[in-house]
Amino acid sequence: MARVTQADVARAAGTSMAVVSYVVNGGPRPVAEATRQRVLAAIEQTGYRPDGVARALVGGSTMTLGLIVPDIANEFFAELAAAVEQAARAAGRTVLLANSEGDASTELDLLDTFLQRRIDGLVIVSQAPAAADRLLNRAKTRHVFLGAAPESAASIGVDNFGGAVAATRHLLEHGHSRIAAIAGPAGDHVAEARLAGWRHAVAARPTAGRVRFVQHPFTVTGGYDAALALLNPSPLAPGGPASGASIFGRSGPAGARVRPQAVFASSDRQAIGLLRAAADLGLSVPDDLAVVTFDGSSISAYAVPALTTIQQPIAEMAELAVRQLIDPDPQPLRAVLEVGLVVRRSCGCPPAHL
Amino acid sequence: MARVTQADVARAAGTSMAVVSYVVNGGPRPVAEATRQRVLAAIEQTGYRPDGVARALVGGSTMTLGLIVPDIANEFFAELAAAVEQAARAAGRTVLLANSEGDASTELDLLDTFLQRRIDGLVIVSQAPAAADRLLNRAKTRHVFLGAAPESAASIGVDNFGGAVAATRHLLEHGHSRIAAIAGPAGDHVAEARLAGWRHAVAARPTAGRVRFVQHPFTVTGGYDAALALLNPSPLAPGGPASGASIFGRSGPAGARVRPQAVFASSDRQAIGLLRAAADLGLSVPDDLAVVTFDGSSISAYAVPALTTIQQPIAEMAELAVRQLIDPDPQPLRAVLEVGLVVRRSCGCPPAHL
DNA sequence: GTGAAAGCGCTAACAC
DNA sequence: GTGTTAGCGCTTTCAC
């Protein structure tokens, strides 16, 4: 018993393939009710399932959306993937997933593969937006960038600057004046925007005194190292990561540093590293050190203490992206979504429960 | 400029479609080197990319593997997905991902969709193994179950019992005698195996006195609730989840309970909830309460204190699964992989660093 | 070594 | 309302 095809159904129903197609697809031609029933019965009886591959070949659409992220094991992207898959499924689409591993050339290879698979559209957190955009345009494949994106392409981003400002201000409102920052890698678009937001907020209170920031990867170890650089009374060992200068001038010799009262961490993962470093240094969060972070991934809620964070609207991003990809006539999209402050324990606000 | 097809290339190279196919696929017939070069040039010049859909229609294979998990946002499954995608990519396959949301009927729908897409094989963490197996067998689609699986199907599991024994023994070795357990939901295959392991280990030391366990979902809140039930001196509010009896007889009235010195948590997520509950109750981990957990997902390393855990060999599972799916002649597979104890801080062992 | 042609399973004109 | 038929882009037999 090989694959059941439309021809088999047609035979069983005593009709033609075309009619079978019409009832399966509800068109484009009408079918008499009686015939319809016979076909339905035949489908039932034969166990026929339309072949998506053949369908895609003739019809044009594969009903498949691609998703490329740097690392699906990262909770932020995992949550994004879950949201995209859900939105796609709700729209009857299936999603092809791949990790670029943060590597531009891997990403381009992946794109090639997806294009050969004739995906209908792509959601991408890109390492090489310009190149990706070019490739996708040439293939006439719809796509939306999340985060970094070329000017002319559809994209969805969040207000990184505004979020960082809000986070830092919240710390300011707690009465802290020495608020340091753990920034993302230099040159990263998102990292720079968040750093700028922090800068903007602390600059508003010149009494803030010596304010410092360090630039580290968006990882747990990145946050750990950053925290050590920020919190350690002694200077870093040679070869350690570079510290940023105070915005009020170069900070004094390490021995003279005043410990920050609070830290704005640019990502949840970094904040997790910071928490560990604080624990290692015997510092209590939020009593000795207040912390606000950015992302709002589930990890921030699980941490002890729970992290006050700037929440990204992941579900909204996913829905918007999917909608854009399947919209019959899509408008140019260049969304910047609002982020919200989620107050939990790490900033020093009163405890709330799970 | 529409899609570039093989015919275009053939025309440009002054040859036939068949020859183009031969050079693209390196067979099945030989091609003269000179012709080959002309074809290659034509491909380059036209920007031809083979169409995967058409290829799949005739060839049979879509070079696509499916992955169905309950929830990709769960770090354990996210890590699994990353590993599966990586293994698949290394083998030239692409992965179609979907979330069953822990729901059997959603899972079956998903299966249907994947089958229509003609996936070559499927890796599944199933909610309805028997039904899924039947469907997949009927469609002659290869598949491997992770975790719960029908007897006759290919499956990969881990030694849940042995892992739980090792975890509990480690706690015993720390000198604790009152070791409670947070089990997964009753009826869950994996949960039962881990619970049995804990039982086995504590039974070996009858001096353990009153040992208790509670059954809760494999979630952070499940762990939180479980911890409250285990650690609170006062009885639970009415309507709270049921507590298991002591294996040495029903435990006494709540007021008379002795607080456990240690807890074996059946999953990392539950342990995270436990950590939070302990903090809320003013209990220090590991000083007041030692903890060992199960899974070894990244979250366990990030927690403060870092969690001592039973690590599942995720990469190995993924590689084994993918290999099984693409193996030209697959042997029946019924693997039970070993798990390892990863010692960190939560059990009371001396601190180690990030 | 190369090419013509027969499908893979389906949809959608286009006739009837 | 229903059936015939021409492809969709590709692989692969089979002749030359």
UniProtKB/TrEMBL annotation, chains A, B:
HTH lacI-type domain boundaries: 4-59
Record PROSITE patterns: HTH_LACI_2
UniProt keyword annotation of Signal present: no
Claim: DNA-binding is one of the keywords in the record: yes
Organism domain of life: Bacteria
Alphabetical UniProt keywords: DNA-binding, Transcription, Transcription regulation
GO molecular function, one term: DNA-binding transcription factor activity
Full protein name: LacI family DNA-binding transcriptional regulator
